[in-house]
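About this split. The held-out portion is used to measure sequence recovery: a designer receives only the structure tokens and must propose an amino acid at every position. Recovery is the fraction of positions where the proposal matches the reference. Here is one held-out target exactly as it appears in the evaluation file.
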């Protein structure tokens, strides 16, 4: 770990900035258990380097499962609410589908699934894996 962190620290030092290490979605899969057991050691290792910083993303509901209480009290927290109204959700879904080359539904966005980022990602990846750019019709 020190080899990697040392090299990242040197890179930040040479540029005169901090190198930010992002640990995304630490609550997913078996992640929460792993992080709860190892997070204190990882944070301590990163804190030894003056040009390193770390960000850990975790769904709020899982904070107590992923973060040891001792760290949770010390580390700053920033809560992101995500999309807060139907218009924001629809605009985000349209942008996402357009970027992926997936045809938008030609009906009103009545289904709440289309405003769920994880659903959009999963559905888009499944369609693209099958070589499709639109949802097949259900008969």
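Reference sequence for scoring:
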């Amino acid at each position: 770990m020190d080899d990697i962190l040392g090299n990242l620290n040197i890179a930040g030092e040479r540029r005169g900035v901090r190198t930010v290490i992002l640990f995304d979605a630490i609550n997913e899969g078996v992640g929460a258990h792993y992080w709860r057991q190892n997070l204190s050691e990882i944070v301590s290792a990163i804190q030894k380097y003056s040009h390193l910083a770390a960000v850990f993303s975790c769904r709020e509901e899982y904070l107590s499962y992923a973060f040891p209480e001792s760290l949770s009290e010390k580390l700053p927290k920033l809560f992101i609410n995500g999309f807060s109204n139907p218009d924001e959700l629809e605009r985000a879904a349209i942008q996402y589908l357009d970027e992926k080359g997936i045809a938008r539904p030609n009906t009103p966005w009545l289904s709440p699934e289309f405003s769920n980022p994880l659903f959009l990602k999963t559905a888009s990846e499944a369609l693209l894996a099958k070589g499709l750019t639109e949802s097949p019709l259900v008969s």
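Annotator remark: Helices lie at 2-15, 31-47, 63-66, 69-74, 86-100, 117-129.
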